[in-house]
C-alpha cells in the first residue's frame, strides 16, 4: 500500500505510456515478432490458459435514429493470458467506417491498458491500432503456414486499407514463397496506393490491381478479405481448388463457402458464433454447428488437430480477433520498451 510520503516524493505507482512511435522503436513493426507471440498465444488458447470474457460492442444510433454502419463501434476486449505471459489487460478500440474517406484518418484507433495480475494495477498504456493490425496479420501468417498449400506463391487481398497493407507485408516477409499479389478495392485509388506501397517495398513481388473482387479472388491460393463490407459477395465458386481463405473482415463470404469448404477453422468458437455474423447466422438457421467445425486455430498450432492434409482442400479461417492476441503482443512490446528505456513514465496519482 502506498503511503502519503511515497506520493510526496513521487515514488508511487507508475505506468509506461507507449505511443505508436515508441512501439515501432521497440520492434512493434516486425511481422516475425508478432508471429512468434501469436503462435505461443494460440497454443495457450488450446490449453485453456487464458480468461477472455465476450467482448461488448458499443454502438450508437445515427442522426436519423438508425443503427449506424457495421464498422461504427467501440469494442472493449479484456483478457488474461497465462502460461509464460501472466498478464491482464484491455484493448479499447474505436472504429468509424468513414474516417479514411471523410476525415483522412485511419478507420480504427484505440488504447491498450496492461494490468499486473498480482495487484491488478495498470502498468502501461499503449497505442492500440499498430498492435491490433499487426497481430491480425500474424494470425493470417500462422494460419497460412498450417492451412495454405505448401510453397504457395499467389495471394489475393480484397479491400486495400491499413489492415490489408499489414496482412500483405506480414505474409510477404514471413512466407518467402509468396511472389505474386492481386489487389482489389471498390476504391481503385486505394488499391493503386497499396500496390505502389508494396511495389516500392518489395520489388521482387509482382503486384497486380484487378478490376473486380472475382478476378482477384480467382487468382489467390491465399485469399484475405480486408473490407468493411456488411454483406457477403464471395461465393464458393470463385475460390481456386486448394485455396486458403483468411476471412479477416468476417462478412465477405457467402454462406455456401462455409458449407462447401473442406475445413472451417475459427480462432475461438464462442467469440466467432455471435453478433449475427455469417457463421452465427448459419448456426441460428440450424445449418452449421460446432460439430461442423474442423478446429480452433490453437488446436492445430498445438498439434491436437491436423492442418492441411491435401493440396486440394479448401480451407476457411474465420478469425474474429481475440483480446489475448492483443494483450500478449502488447506485453511483449512493453517488456522490450521497458528494457530499452523507451516511452514516457507517468505517475498514476500525481
Ligand atoms: N478479424 C480481426 O481480428 C480484425 C482485426 C482488425 C480489423 N479487422 C477488420 O478489417 C477490416 C479492414 O479494416 P481497415 O482498417 O483496413 O479498414 P479501411 O476502412 O482502412 O479499409 C477498408 C477498405 O475496404 C474497401 N472496401 C469496402 N467494401 C468493399 C468491398 N465490398 N469490396 C472491396 N473493397 C471494399 C474500402 O474502400 C477500403 O479501402 C475491417 O472490417 C475490420 O473490422 C478485423
Task: Give an account of the 3D structure.
With 350 residues, this protein is an alpha/beta fold. The protein folds into two domains: 13-131 and 324-347, 2-Layer Sandwich (ornithine cyclodeaminase, domain 1); 148-320, 3-Layer(aba) Sandwich (Rossmann fold). It is 37% helix and 22% strand. The chain has 13 helices and 16 strands. Strands 1, 2, 3, 4, 5, 6, 7 and 16 form an eight-stranded mixed β-sheet that branches. It is globular and about 65 Å long. The site of nicotinamide-adenine-dinucleotide has 29 residues, from helix 5 and helix 6.
Task: Outline the fold blueprint.
Blueprint: H1 4-9, E1 14-18, H2 20-26, H3 31-47, E2 50-51, E3 57-58, E4 73-81, E5 87-95, H4 99-103, E6 108-115, E7 122-127, H5 129-147, E8 154-158, H6 162-174, E9 180-184, H7 188-201, E10 206-209, H8 213-219, E11 222-225, E12 244-246, H9 255-260, E13 263-266, H10 269-272, H11 278-284, E14 295-296, H12 297-301, E15 315-318, H13 323-340, E16 344-347
Parallel strand pairs: 1-7, 8-9, 8-11, 9-10, 11-12, 12-15, 13-14, 13-15
Antiparallel strand pairs: 1-16, 2-4, 3-4, 4-5, 5-6, 6-7
Give the mean pLDDT. 96
Total number of helices: 13
Helix content: 25-40%
Gross CATH architecture of the largest domain: 3-Layer(aba) Sandwich
Identify the quaternary structure here. Answer: single chain
Approximate shape: globular
Fold-level CATH name of the largest domain: Rossmann fold
Brief overview:
With 350 residues, the protein is α/β, with parallel strands linked by helices. 37% of the residues lie in helices and 22% in strands.
Amino acid at each position: 500500500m502506498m503511503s502519503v510520503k511515497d506520493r510526496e516524493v513521487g515514488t508511487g505507482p507508475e505506468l509506461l505510456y507507449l505511443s505508436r512511435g515508441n512501439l515501432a522503436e521497440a520492434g512493434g513493426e516486425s511481422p516475425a515478432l508478432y508471429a512468434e507471440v501469436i503462435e505461443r498465444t494460440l497454443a495457450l488458447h488450446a490449453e485453456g490458459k487464458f480468461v477472455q470474457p465476450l467482448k461488448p460492442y458499443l454502438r450508437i444510433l445515427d442522426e436519423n435514429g438508425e443503427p449506424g454502419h457495421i464498422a461504427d463501434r467501440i469494442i472493449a476486449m479484456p483478457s488474461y493470458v497465462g502460461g509464460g505471459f501472466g498478464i491482464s489487460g484491455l484493448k479499447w478500440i474505436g472504429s468509424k467506417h468513414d474516417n479514411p474517406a471523410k476525415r483522412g484518418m485511419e478507420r480504427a484507433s484505440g488504447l491498450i491498458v496492461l494490468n499486473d495480475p498480482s495487484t491488478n494495477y495498470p502498468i502501461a498504456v499503449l497505442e492500440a491500432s499498430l498492435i491490433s493490425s499487426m497481430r491480425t496479420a500474424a494470425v493470417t501468417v500462422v494460419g497460412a503456414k498450417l492451412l495454405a498449400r505448401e510453397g504457395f506463391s499467389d495471394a489475393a487481398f480484397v479491400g486495400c486499407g491499413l489492415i490489408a497493407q499489414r496482412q500483405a507485408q506480414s505474409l510477404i516477409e514471413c512466407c518467402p514463397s509468396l511472389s505474386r499479389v492481386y489487389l482489389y478495392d471498390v476504391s481503385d485509388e486505394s488499391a493503386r496506393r497499396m500496390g505502389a506501397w508494396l511495389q516500392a517495398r518489395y520489388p521482387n513481388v509482382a503486384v497486380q490491381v484487378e478490376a473486380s473482387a472475382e478476378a482477384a479472388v480467382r487468382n489467390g491460393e491465399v485469399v484475405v478479405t480486408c473490407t468493411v463490407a456488411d454483406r457477403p459477395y464471395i461465393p464458393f465458386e470463385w475460390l481456386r481448388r486448394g485455396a486458403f481463405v483468411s476471412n479477416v473482415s468476417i462478412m465477405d463470404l457467402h454462406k455456401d463457402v462455409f458449407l462447401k469448404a473442406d475445413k472451417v477453422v475459427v480462432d475461438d468458437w464462442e467469440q466467432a458464433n455471435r453478433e449475427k455474423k455469417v457463421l452465427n447466422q448459419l448456426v441460428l438457421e440450424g445449418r452449421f454447428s460446432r460439430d461442423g467445425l474442423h478446429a480452433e486455430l490453437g488446436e492445430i498450432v498445438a498439434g491436437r488437430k491436423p492442418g492441411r492434409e491435401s493440396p486440394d482442400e479448401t480451407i476457411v479461417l474465420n478469425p474474429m480477433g481475440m483480446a489475448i492476441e492483443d494483450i500478449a503482443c502488447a506485453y511483449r512490446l512493453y517488456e522490450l520498451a521497458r528494457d530499452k528505456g523507451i516511452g514516457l513514465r507517468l505517475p498514476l496519482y500525481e
